[in-house]
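From the pipeline queue, job 12 of 40. The input is one protein chain; the requested action is below.

Action: predict structure.
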Amino acid sequence: MKKIFFALSIFFMSLFVLAGCVTTRRVTLSSHFDPLLAKSMLEKGKNSIKGSALIRQRGGGIVTCAGREVLLIPATDYAKERMRAIYGSDIKGFYDISNIGFGKKLIKFTSTSPEYLKLKKKTICDAQGFFLFSDIKDGGYFVTTSIVWQISDLFYEGGALMQYVNVAGGVTKNIVLAP
């Protein structure tokens, strides 16, 4: 009985310690979201962005975005500031969820414009991990997706990927989202 009590005590203390390691970083953005600008950037254009997204596992295997949502977000000042807060860059980034619970801070924005959450294009990666956005107006955009897999009952690996893409003149840009 003492062994069971001791094992349970260690288990719950471990959970308490892990839970205590997760902290939240609150971010207040100085930019204001301009829904008219974002809406105009989402009007029909002549450009395309096609690509794939993948993460190489520690053992060498590759996990793609197959079946996952990919977002195309107009690169307004507000969106750029959000990307810098999440990824540390507004050009390209990876937010690793593998270390959450081990000192990594979760990000919480003090306020988020509801229009920002709506004004974007969405697609789904195909079975091979490829995606396509077509009829895009000239301008700058963020392409984001997440690739996450479970490695045990309590642990996940992977994270969120982001890349800035500028299109103009009826081009098709090819990108690969990877850490």
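Job complete. The radius of gyration is 20 Å.
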